[in-house]
Design brief:
The complex is a heterodimer of chains A (about 210) and B (about 150).
Chain A lengths: L7 H9 L3 H23 L2 H17 L10 H30 L15 H6 L8 H20 L2 H12 L4 H8 L3 H18 L1 H12 L1
Helix pairs in contact in A: 1-2, 2-3, 2-4, 2-7, 3-4, 4-8, 7-9, 8-9
Chain B lengths: L2 H12 L5 H13 L1 H18 L9 H53 L12 H4 L12 H4 L9
Classes of the chains: A mainly alpha (about 210), B mainly alpha (about 150).
């Protein structure tokens, strides 16, 4: 069994004893997932990088408080979510202060809030596609991200955790601290909203399946 | 499998997170239930479309890791000390509370058991009985106050 294949529980146990390389392995395993979650939460690339970084720092510092080593991923997402909420509160406060002190015509978006283009730059591109297909693929990706961004925050976070990161309903419920039934109902509502926005792309998929 | 239960498990099944007996039972139910079959199809379409956009990479993960390393190294000395104390107390808080309670019980028992005797001779005052200097005139008796040594010469 190579180090890449070691289960989370073993890597966490090693990291708890101060093994940095085990923690590094966990970082490479989860940094994209955490970053994706945080980006969708904050809608800002720069802020998302800072929060992702802080999430792993916090995780290393408080690793001893993790009781079940198997629950590392859920625990990591809980830390990320708390830090996102802190960042949002801070941003809301700063916005309120700047609105109060800076005239509206001088205000600029410094953190790239709502940027979809830079976000797409970070999405893994399918190298096997020809240029035309790549354009279509990017257009579809942009539409999906815009549709996710339009969802309300509670719906957005369940969609990101369940569909983009592939977490089970139980795991999502644990991370968000809500009942399983609530996760299911939010997923159903989110799916309805996405179906309305992305009807065209869903039809394409259906056609692809039926062919 | 009941229909309500199957509807609950469809979301996990669509993202490939259902395993073992539950998966087999659900597949059997889906093959017999057109409602669940239709719902699963819709779920799988959504999953395919959303999963297709993939995860997002930070601009420079190696740099991020380096920063994490440096931040954790800087705080390592302090945090390890805190951690040691935390670990120390996490093991010792129960015995410490037990010991404190035991000490309280022993002190209470001793205080009840060794009650001071009642005032035996009412003709002398409490202060005289206990050989204490009167509070009203602490320097009235220098010898009692310890400010004078009695002359023991014959």
């Amino acid at each position: 069994m190579t180090r890449d294949e070691l289960p989370d529980s073993l890597l966490v146990a090693k990291a708890k004893k101060g093994d940095w390389s085990a923690f590094e392995q966990l970082f490479w395993r989860y940094h994209e997932k955490v970053y994706t979650f945080v980006w969708h939460f904050l809608q800002s690339r720069e802020l998302a990088e800072d929060v992702t970084q802080d999430t792993f720092i916090k995780a290393w510092e408080s690793l001893h408080s993790l009781k079940s080593n198997d629950a590392f991923q859920a625990w990591l997402h809980q830390i990320a979510r708390r830090l996102c909420l802190d960042a949002l509160r801070k941003r809301a406060w700063e916005t309120a202060v700047s609105e109060f002190t800076v005239p509206a015509d001088q205000q600029t978006s410094e953190d790239g809030e709502g940027e979809i283009e830079p976000f797409l730059a970070g999405v893994e591109s399918a190298s096997s596609l020809d240029p035309e297909e790549t354009v279509i693929d990017n257009e579809r990706k942009r539409a999906v991200h815009e549709a996710i961004a339009q969802l309300s925050p509670p719906l957005r976070e369940v969609v990101v955790l369940h569909y983009l990161e592939g977490l089970s309903v139980d795991e999502v419920a644990k991370i968000l601290g809500i009942p399983v039934g609530t996760v299911l109902s939010r997923l159903a509502r989110a799916r309805e909203a996405l179906r309305r926005t992305l009807a065209r792309y869903l039809d394409e998929i259906e056609e692809g399946v039926s062919k | 499998m009941r229909h309500e239960k199957a509807m609950q498990l469809l979301a996990d099944y669509a993202v490939g997170r259902l395993k073992g007996r539950a998966k087999i039972a659900l597949e059997q139910h889906i093959s017999e239930c057109p409602i669940c079959e239709r719902e699963l199809k819709a779920l799988q379409q959504t999953e395919k479309l959303l999963r297709g956009v993939g995860l997002v990479r930070p601009s420079d993960p190696k740099l991020m890791l380096t920063r994490i390393r440096s931040a954790t190294t800087q705080t390592a000395r302090v945090s390890s000390r805190v951690w040691q104390w935390r670990t120390f107390w996490s093991y010792l808080w129960k015995p410490a509370i037990g010991f404190a309670l035991l000490a309280l019980v022993v002190a209470a028992t001793l205080s009840i058991w060794r009650q001071p005797p009642d005032h035996p001779d009412l003709s002398v005052s409490y202060e005289q009985y206990h050989r204490l200097v009167s509070w009203s005139n602490p320097l009235g008796n220098w010898f009692e106050a310890g400010l004078s040594v009695p002359n023991t010469q014959p």
